[in-house]
Amino acid sequence: MINIVFGLDDKFAAMCGACCASILANHKRKVKSELLKIVVDADDKIHFYFIGNLSKKNKKRLLDLKNIQDCECSFPDIDLSQFDAFPVNNFFKSRAAYYRLLAVDFVDGDRAVYLDCDMIVNCDIQLLWDMDLEDNFIAAVKDIGERIISPYFNSGLIVFDLKSLREWDFFNKVCNYVRDNKEQIENFIYPDQDLLNKIFNGNFKQLDERYNFMFAGHLENTSLKEDAIVHYAGIKPLSWQCPTLYRNLFFQYSQMTHWNLNMNKFYFELFKLSPLFFLKPKWIKRLKKMRAETKEYLKKQAQGNKNADL
Q1: pTM of the prediction?
Q2: Per CATH, is 2-211 categorized as 3.90.550.10?
C-alpha cells in the first residue's frame, strides 16, 4: 500500500478531494498476470488516511473517489483537545495541519506521504514512494528564503519514515517541545511549519522543488510546471490572483469529485470580494475570456484522457 496522509477538517474537504483525484488519476498501478487474469498489484494501491473528524457527507464524497481508481480510505477520529496548546495565529487559525502528527499512530505501515490539502499532484506519486530517504526521518522541499533555522523546509509535502519516527517517540517529543517552549512558539509566523522545523533542526532529505512547487514564487513563468506537485500556498485556486493555467489545473481534477469547483464558484467568490468587477465592461470582457480559456483547456484534457484509454 502507498500511504497518503491528510490532516484536515470539513473546511478543507473540497480541496482535499481535488488533490486525491489528481493522485488517483496520475497513478499508474502495476499489473501482473495470474492464471490468465490481469491482477492489479496490491503493493501499488493507494491508501488515504483522512485524519480529522469529518462530517458523514464529506466522508461519503471522499469514498466516492474510488470511482477514479480503486483505493482504500481510513477516517480516524481524534481527540482534538490534545492540540489545544499548539500554536495558531491570525493568519493560520486552524489546527488541522497538526493532525498529520498522528500518522505515527494511525498509519498501518513504515512510510507515509503527507500532503497539504491545497495541492495538485500532476505526476505519479510512486516517484516519491520509491525514494530512498537515506537514513533521514523525513524528506521535504527546501523553502524559499531562510527563517528560524537553516536549512528550512516547507511542510506542505513531507515523506515520513514512520518506523524510525515511532522508535524516536516523535509525537511525544513534539508535545514536550510545545509544553516547554510556550513563549517561543507564540512568535511563530508559520506555526505548524516552524514547529516541525524546530523539531527536525535542519535534518531532512532535500527534494527537488517540483515535489512542492509553489508557483506564487514563480509568477513570471507563463507555462505550467509539468510533472510536478503544485502547491497553492498563498494563492488559492479560486482567488483572483491565481494564474489561469493553475486555476484550470485545479478545475481539471475538482470536476472529478462531487464538489466540482469550477468557474461559477470562482465568479461567486469574486463577487463576494468585489461586486464592482461585474459592473465594469473591461472586467466582464476579461472574465469571459478566462471562461473561454478554461472551457478549451478542460475540453483538451478530456480528449487527451479519451485517447489515452484507447
Answers
A1: 0.89
A2: yes
